[in-house]
Design a protein that fits this description.
The protein is an alpha/beta fold. It has helices at residues 41-49, 61-64, 87-99, 118-127, 140-147, 177-180, 196-205, 235-240, 263-268; strands spanning 8-10, 21-23, 26-30, 52-55, 72-75, 104-108, 132-135, 161-165, 167-168, 171-172, 186-190, 213-218, 226-231, 248-252. The structure holds S-adenosyl-L-homocysteine.
């Protein structure tokens, strides 16, 4: 493990040469939803020890500020549908820095194992015969649901909760709409802003109740967190009425807990 400074000696299979060199595992780190206090201690140590931190745009400035002063920060982020660094370029950067014997942290927003293209990057490392290590983080769904004083699962309401994406490589992502439309279902929808109208249409078509609560949480856990309580029927209008510039998660099937009874929540839920 990177934090125990175990050097693993590997022979580069990809190049086919036999000269062994000590290499540090590339450390994939979940940066959490933005609030630096939600970093794991392991993530913090990795940031402080890193030589290079290759990070996404979603990673907050507050988290990056915790990097060690020796760390070189490399931004490979993309914002929404904006210009992105090609995945192959990111894969190559991980390999390049790791081969130099540097401590590489690949820092991803939330939990790096959720909608983070982690496998693609791991496979590139494996291809190059390089070791890696994963430090999980708090995902946006956990932060968002905490921000509205709710729970993703509840006895008697839902025995499962889903994590889905609004769009995938082919466009708006298809899901098991019939299952999602059932009463009591709870789903955390990532990357759902642009797909909201599509999702609404599919769910209504499969029989979901128009008054099913949907809560939009923008910038979950951050100082500028915003909570918009809506329903399936009103979701596109709710989103259209607001200029949401930050990352936003849709919590389908959940409304904010009644804030009147909860003074701390009341400050967070607008
Ligand atoms: N690996 C990340 C998800 C990356 S996909 C995680 O585990 O959280 C990017 C999407 O995550 C965004 O489009 C948004 O839907 C969601 N997201 C990430 N951070 C968020 C935040 N602080 N608040 C609300 N949504 C967030």
């Amino acid at each position: 493990m990177v934090l125990q400074r175990i050097f693993r000696t590997v022979t580069s299979r990809a190049k086919g040469h036999r000269d062994a060199m000590p290499l540090m595992p590339v450390c994939f780190v979940g940066a959490g939803p933005g609030d630096p206090d939600l970093l794991t201690i392991k993530a913090l140590k990795a940031l402080q020890e890193a030589d290079v931190i290759i990070h996404d745009r979603l990673v907050s400035a507050g988290v990056l500020a915790l990097a060690g002063h020796q760390a070189r920060l490399v931004d490979v982020g993309k914002e929404g549908f904006g210009p992105s660094t090609p995945q192959a370029h990111i894969d190559a950067l991980n390999v390049k820095y790791a081969r130099q014997g540097l401590r590489v942290v690949r820092l991803k927003g939330g939990d790096c194992t959720i909608f983070g293209r982690l496998d693609e990057e791991i496979e590139a490392l494996e291809e190059a015969g390089l070791p890696f290590h994963i430090v999980p983080g708090i995902t946006a769904a956990s932060a968002a649901v905490a921000g509205i004083g709710q729970s993703l699962t509840r006895r008697g309401r839902n025995a499962s909760a889903r994590i889905i994406t609004g769009h995938d490589m082919k466009g708006f992502a298809d899901q098991d709409w019939r299952a999602l439309a059932q009463h009591g279902e709870v789903t955390a929808i990532y990357m759902g802003k642009k797909a909201a109208r599509f999702i609404q249409g599919r769910l209504l078509m499969h029989g979901a109740a128009p008054d099913t609560p949907v809560t939009v949480v923008e910038n979950a856990s951050r100082g500028d967190q915003r909570v918009l309580a809506s329903t399936l029927a009103d979701l596109p209008a709710t989103l259209d009425a607001q200029a949401l510039n930050g990352p936003a998660l849709l919590l389908y099937g959940l409304a904010p807990r009644d804030v009147a009874d909860h003074p701390v929540l009341a400050r967070e839920v607008s």
